[in-house]
Amino acid sequence: STFPPPPFFWQSFTPENIARTEELRDAQTEAIAIREGDLHAQKPLDLPESLQFLQPPEPPADGNYRCFGFHYSLEDKLLPLEETGIPVLYKEVDTPSEGQNTDQAMRHTDRAFQLKKLAKSLLANWAEALDIGSSNANQLAAKLGDIETIQFNMHHLINDYRPHQARESLIQMMRDQLERSRAETEGIYKTIARTDQVLEALKNI
In sequence order, what are the beta bridge partners of 70? Predict the structure, then answer.
């Protein structure tokens, strides 16, 4: 077979075992909530040995785990390019060159400006790759490596915007929610005003 066999504990995941585990989970969760006053209590289940494989594993103590041969960390952070062995092709945000005026320094702190520079460099290197591929294919691999490095730098700059994007998305969601609340409140006030008018009209009949 091309793929290895599944782990042996897959045989424990029968409909009967799954249903029994759900029953035990509901009963123990309710007992913990009553005892500790926490309706959202989530603690490891005290399962019998035959159902142990249906208990999800606890988070790794050191914060690192391996999946399909790759190592991951529970702390989701963007590693600097230097730590990954990729050359940095743009100026760092807080390190403008000496002797620059204010406008030049601000351009170096502007990631959009850096992305535009990298995009132009990418197009130039792509044109060079086409020329090399038609004239000297032996040197094409090095040029493709340069293109890959530029793309890594562009992706890193874009990913550096993710926290800002998340904040702005939350701000926009809250604004939309506030606008909907205001519109609903205004609609309620208008309905009350119309109802008052109808009641006044009925009094005069």
Answer: 67
| pLDDT value at residue 37 | 46
- Confirm if 150 and 89 have CB atoms less than 8 A apart: yes
CA geometry: angle at 19 spanning 15 and 20, to 5°? 115
Strand partners, 73: 64
- The pLDDT confidence band at residue 61, using thresholds 50, 70 and 90, is confident
Q: What is the number of other CB atoms lying within 10 angstroms of the CB of residue 125? A: 19
N-terminal to C-terminal alpha carbon distance within the chain: 89
Helix (H), strand (E) at residue 5: none
Residue type for position 37: G
CA atoms within 13 A on the CB side of 94: 0
* Relative orientation angle of helices 111-135 and 102-109, to the nearest 10 degrees: 70
Give the model's pLDDT for residue 95: 41
Specify whether the CB–CB gap between 53 and 9 falls below 8 A. Answer: yes
CA atoms of 77 and 84, how far apart (whole Å)? 13
pTM over 0.85: no
